[in-house]
Amino acid sequence: MTLSELKNLADIIQSFIISFAALSGGLWALYQFHSLKRIEKAKSELKAIKRSLEERGILSAGVDAFPTCFQDKLFIQVRVQIENVGNTSEVINWDDSGVVASKVVKAENGIIEFSKDGFHGYQDEDVSAEDSCVDPGVKLVTSFLVHVTEPGIYFIDFAASCSPLASQNAAESRTRSGIGGSSANYSWYSDTFVVVPEYP
Predict the structure, then answer these.
(1) DSSP secondary-structure letter at 122?
(2) What is the DSSP string of the chain?
(3) Burial degree of 158 (CB within 10 A; 0-12, 13-18, 19+)
(4) Which fold has domain 59-196?
(5) Which end of the chain offers a freer environment for a tag, N or C, measured as fewer CB atoms within 10 Å?
(6) How high is the pLDDT of residue 144?
(7) What pLDDT score was predicted for residue 169?
(8) pLDDT tens, 5-51?
(9) How many CB atoms lie within 10 A of CB 75?
């Protein structure tokens, strides 16, 4: 092999090495571009999830109950105060919300049993859509009247069914966290006990 042939062979090998390096560099740059694109997509999805978790109505409910007697009938007046401590408006679905009073029928060894049938509270049926929307920082006060048949200790349970969007967000959040989602409405609860005395 002559010197010129050896030089030509070296040039060919050098050309292959340069071509291989350029091709490898291009593939590496393409891989990095797609990796960064995936990272940016993951970051934007994370921001969207955080925003959906932070932007929601959160209802804080409190219940006060007072026994009363009218025309020899026993009633419990239930006053419910709802405050939206979240950062978006919340809509209460009053058709699926309300108050139930359950009488304590037995208490032994620290175990309390309640009547199977609860007494449902009456609320004004003309609650408007505006009354159902609770804006952030706003308090809503509403009342229920429960007719009970006898004196005793009653457990007052209030449940407010919230807007379908919040229900969907809550179900998705529960699914993401591994708790499991539900198609049922998401509700806010509060409860208390009241003693209904025997009136003369």
Answers:
(1) B
(2) --HHHHHHHHHHHHHHHHHHHHHHHHHHHHHHHHHHHHHHHHHHHHHHHHHHHHS---EEEEEEEEEEEETTEEEEEEEEEEEE-SSS-EEEEEEEEEEEEEEEEEEETTEEEE-SSPEEPB--TT--HHHHEE-TT-EEEEEEEEEESS-EEEEEEEEEEE-HHHHHHHHHHHHHTTS---SSPPEEEEEEEEEEPPP-
(3) buried
(4) Immunoglobulin-like (2.60.40)
(5) C
(6) 93
(7) 53
(8) 878 888 888 888 888 888 888 888 878 777 777 778 878 888 887 77
(9) 20
Neighbours of 121 (CB within 10 A): 23
Residue 109 CB partners (closer than 8 Å, separation 6+) = none
Which regions of the chain are under pLDDT 70? 1, 52-55, 126-131, 163-186
Q: Is the pTM of this model over 0.70?
A: no
* Residue recorded with tokens 């109950």: 65
